[in-house]
Design a protein that fits this description.
Elements: E1 2-4, H1 5-8, H2 20-29, E2 33-39, E3 46-58, E4 64-74, E5 81-88, E6 98-102, E7 107-108, E8 112-113, E9 117-119, E10 122-124, E11 127-128, H3 131-134, H4 159-162, E12 168-173, H5 184-195, E13 221-224, E14 235-244, H6 254-262, H7 270-282, E15 287-290, E16 298-302, E17 308-310, E18 316-318, E19 324-328, E20 331-335, E21 339-340, E22 353-360, H8 362-371, H9 377-384, H10 391-406, E23 409-418, E24 425-429, H11 432-437, H12 443-452, E25 456-459, E26 463-467, H13 478-489, H14 509-523, E27 527-528, E28 534-535, H15 537-543, E29 566-567, H16 572-584, E30 590-597, H17 621-629, E31 636-643, E32 645-647, E33 656-657, H18 660-674, E34 679-682, E35 688-700, E36 703-713, H19 715-720, E37 727-733, H20 734-739, E38 756-765, H21 770-781, E39 785-794, E40 803-812, H22 821-839, E41 842-843
Parallel strand pairs: 13-16, 27-30
Antiparallel strand pairs: 1-12, 2-12, 3-4, 3-6, 4-5, 6-11, 7-8, 9-10, 14-22, 14-23, 15-22, 16-19, 17-18, 19-20, 20-21, 24-26, 25-26, 28-29, 30-31, 31-37, 32-33, 34-35, 35-36, 36-37, 38-40, 38-41, 39-40
Helix pairs in contact: 2-5, 6-7, 7-10, 8-9, 12-13, 14-18, 21-22
Length: about 850
């Protein structure tokens, strides 16, 4: 909310000498975060000038400039008129017109310094300014002629003061629960709370121009809401006033244009400017109708199926049956609280104006604005709650300004419909505020703070019964009242105390292991990232389950991006997108990992809950159980992606690309961190290279259990994302891995006895996985075998067709003695014997 200081000072006394920073500091005390300071950024000699004469001079470039002689007021030394020669490209002025002249030494917004310069064969001693150059409008094709603003000042008058360009506005952040502060009235009240200055409510001092006039004819208004949302009717207040004989072509006065510009709203026309001005002043959105274009009574109702409305932005909108409308006998003429219709728009031909000041249901307005993607200043206020008691004053204020500025005549009466609503009361027990905030507030301090924000207070046996003012719909509970007491008495009174952690058992086993996994991957050169959980349907379908194949998906009801409307079933789509983004920024060597949840719905199950309970109260056990049942399983996975060079090119060494071995190395790091033996065997996955995909598993009492996959992306998939290097990936169901881990990860001590090393070459059929042979040798060799590694896979001369030779490097060690060669050989042969039994393996000659 932008607040011009001159406007604020009309309703509350600013402390003498206050700057914009001082005002912001005061508002910070009562909970309004400072945003910025705005001004017109104009300085130097900017004065009123009178055009004495001009000569039109056509130029070779096709333009025609005017060489003007302009009187800029008396010279300070001689007292005679100071006449300046100025070149001007505009043609919308005549001799005798008063214009704004920026003399050399002045600076316009931009910044744009003004100096005497030679152009088109003349020395232009200044510049005649347009509204855009002054920062108060969008007009640039013509200069500002002051008579269009109803001004005729003497030459030499300070134009900055004349046009209100010396004002400053402070901008503060207004949270959604404090809609009353989206007005000068609300901010002035808050400044009064912060400083103790007297607040003058503008809603109580509006004079009705029609007071004492003869009775007019009240315009008929009907509220017919047969489909209220959550039991609340769409319109609780509707005030209609009529002003006749207005002149909509009159210019908006300079002070009004300047205040609107500082508040962030451009000037459009006098009548629109007046309604916007009152909206900013009192917080009540106003709409004006051309009375002669209305047919029959105004009716506030819900839309009918198939109805359409052309709004003021000239777009035809198909209406929803929940949209709240303003209608007459011709049909819809406006979206209530959002935007008016084009059929009753005020034009230069308008003579009589119907002024509407209404109060609409926040939920209805919010849904309509979002449904039609039509946010507006009016909807922003209605969504947050508008004071229903200010509608009459706001309508009267608009009538007053239209009479004063547009030459209209106020009709003697108006229509005012109000739905009777009883103000809710809040019970505030004695001592509750002090107990909650931690400050020993006295009973008087509590009462004074609540009285200051406008509440009505009644004493009860247990404490206070508090009725919130009409402009504070956010005050609904005793906790809200406690916050207000703390705010008004000053947040600085609340002591700053570091909390003491409650006693407990520390991290759970799963939490500890997850941290260990993250620390291990980070320590081995991987960078942790966090991806969005929303992906496309095709990404989920591609990566599916760990073993490949289709999987159920959960679609988001109201996605931020229609292309990414599904909850992820794999971490890889997010890792790929992050890698693509980093590559586009020149980071080509990447090693990423993420630990996060995925969403795996069960077959033939519907998820979601039809009605989330409203309010701040805790749901019942039955509702909580229904909510939990509406959530799909969310296991925690760990995903790894590597691409680019794992070893950079160096003198004497070629660069090494990331590949499936690096993905498996990351898996082994996870295995070490969790203390779980993760097996590897040939796998299959729709998104993976068919010859470079491994299935990851753990051994259980019931057999093997798949926990993930690793390998390289299918080349076509990698190419579709513009990767030029292979992309190695791995994904593990971390929850399932942790379920197989022990209470603690125990490191294996380093052996102190001498090791015995031997090599073993076995010939087996080509289709037998090397990992299976290695596992068999390890099992058969027994406890003396400390390490076994596959070092060669040979197929060629000396090996039968359809077979392969696998060579393993074996290391044997005993914990209590030095092994003999015979003991090592015996253990090796035991492994060979088991491999021969299971895989028909033969020792290669």
């Amino acid at each position: 909310m932008r607040v011009p200081l001159s406007w604020l000072a009309e309703f509350v006394d600013l402390e003498p000498g206050s700057t914009a920073a001082d005002v912001q500091a005061a508002l910070v005390k009562v909970g309004f975060e400072e945003e910025d300071v705005h001004n017109f950024e104009i300085s130097g000699p900017v004065v009123v000038g009178e055009v004495l004469e001009y000569i039109d001079e056509p130029q070779t470039n096709g333009k025609t400039i005017r060489w003007c002689q302009v009187n800029v007021g008396p010279d300070a030394d001689t007292g005679k008129d100071d006449v300046r020669g100025i070149v001007c490209g505009a043609h919308n002025f005549e001799v005798g017109d008063r214009v704004v002249v920026t003399l050399p030494g002045s600076v316009l917004p931009g910044p744009f310094p003004i100096a005497a310069r030679t152009t088109y064969g003349h020395t232009s001693d200044g510049m005649i300014a347009s509204t855009r150059e002054l920062g108060i409008g969008d007009e640039h094709d013509g200069i500002l002629v002051l008579s269009t603003l109803g001004l005729n000042p003497e030459p030499g008058t300070d134009a900055i003061t004349l046009l209100g360009l010396d004002d400053t506005a402070v901008e503060v952040n207004v949270t959604p629960d404090r809609g009353y502060a989206l007005s000068i009235r609300g901010i002035a009240r808050e400044y009064s709370h912060a400083t103790g200055a007297e607040f003058r409510d503008p809603a109580t001092v509006v004079a009705d121009p029609a007071e004492g006039a003869g009775a007019g004819t009240a315009y008929p208004v009907i509220v017919d809401d047969d489909a209220p949302i959550r039991g609340r009717i769409g319109c609780t207040v509707f005030v209609a006033r009529v002003v006749r004989g207005v002149d909509p072509t009159r210019p908006s006065p300079a002070w009004l244009v300047a205040r609107l510009a500082l508040a962030g709203i451009r000037s459009i026309s006098l009548i629109v400017d007046v309604t916007n001005y009152v909206m900013l002043e009192l917080g009540q959105p106003i709409h004006g109708y051309d009375l002669d274009r209305l047919t029959g009574p105004i009716t506030v109702r819900r839309a009918k199926a198939g109805e359409t409305l052309t709004t003021l932005d000239d777009k035809v909108r198909t209406l929803d049956v929940q949209d709240l409308l303003i209608t007459d006998e011709s049909g819809p003429i406006g979206l209530a609280g959002v935007m008016g219709g084009a059929s009753t728009e005020i034009t230069d031909a308008t003579v009589d104006v119907l002024v509407e000041a209404a109060n609409f249901d926040p939920v209805s307005v919010a849904r309509t604005a979002r449904r039609h993607k039509l946010p507006s200043e009016a909807s922003k206020r209605f969504e947050r709650g508008v004071d229903p008691a200010v509608a009459v004053a706001a309508a009267t204020r608009v009538v007053q300004l239209l009479v004063d500025l547009a030459g209209g005549e106020a009709d003697g009466s108006g229509s005012a419909l109000a739905h009777a609503t009883e103000a809710a009361t809040i019970e505030l027990p004695t001592g509750f505020v002090a107990g909650l905030i931690g400050v020993d507030y006295t009973a008087d301090q509590v009462r004074e703070a609540l009285a200051e924000i406008g509440t009505r207070i009644d004493e009860t046996e247990s404490g206070l019964r508090v009725t919130a003012p009409s402009w504070r719909p956010d005050l609904t509970t005793k906790w809200d009242l406690a916050e207000e007491v703390a705010r008004i008495n000053g947040y600085d009174r609340i002591p700053s105390v570091l909390p003491i952690a409650p006693p407990g058992h520390g991290l759970t086993h799963a939490q500890s292991v997850r941290r260990q996994v993250a620390q291990t991957l980070a320590a081995t050169g991987h960078t942790e990232v966090l991806a969005y959980p929303f992906v496309s349907e095709s990404s989920n379908a591609l990566f599916g389950q760990a073993t490949g194949g289709a999987i159920g998906q959960v679609k988001i009801a109201n996605p931020l991006d229609s292309e990414a409307a599904w909850l992820r079933t794999s971490l890889l789509p997010g890792l790929i997108q992050i890698a693509v983004r980093n590559r586009s920024r020149g980071l080509t060597d990447l090693s990423l990992f993420e630990i996060g949840v995925v969403f795996l719905p069960e077959a033939d199950r519907e998820y979601g809950h039809p009605m989330v309970p409203a309010g701040a109260g805790r749901p019942t056990r039955e509702v909580e159980a229904a909510l939990n049942a509406g959530i799909p399983p969310q296991p925690r996975h760990v995903g790894v992606l590597l691409t680019g060079h794992t070893v950079p090119k160096q003198p004497g060494n070629q660069a090494a690309d990331a590949g499936w071995r690096d993905a498996l190395e990351a898996v082994q790091q996870v295995a070490l961190a969790t203390g779980v033996a993760i097996g590897v065997r040939q796998g299959n996955h729709a998104g993976m290279h068919p010859g470079r995909c491994a299935e990851l598993f753990v051994e259980t009492d019931a057999g093997t259990s798949c926990v993930g996959f690793a390998g390289e992306l299918l080349p076509q998939v990698a190419k579709s994302f513009d990767f030029v290097h292979p992309v190695a990936v791995a994904e593990l169901d971390l929850d399932r891995v942790i379920a197989h881990s022990g209470a603690a990860v125990v490191s294996t001590p380093i052996g102190t006895q001498t090791a015995a090393t031997q090599d073993l070459s076995l010939v087996v059929a080509e289709e037998i996985p090397a990992g299976d042979v290695l596992a068999t040798v390890i099992e058969g060799a027994g406890a003396l075998l400390e390490e076994a590694v596959l070092v060669d896979d040979y197929r060629g001369a000396g090996v039968p067709d359809g077979a392969k030779s696998l060579t393993f490097a074996l290391r044997f060690r005993a914990a209590d003695r030095t092994l003999t060669a015979a003991e090592a050989s015996e253990a090796k042969l035991a492994g060979v014997a088991l491999a021969a039994k299971r895989h028909d393996a033969q020792i290669r000659d």
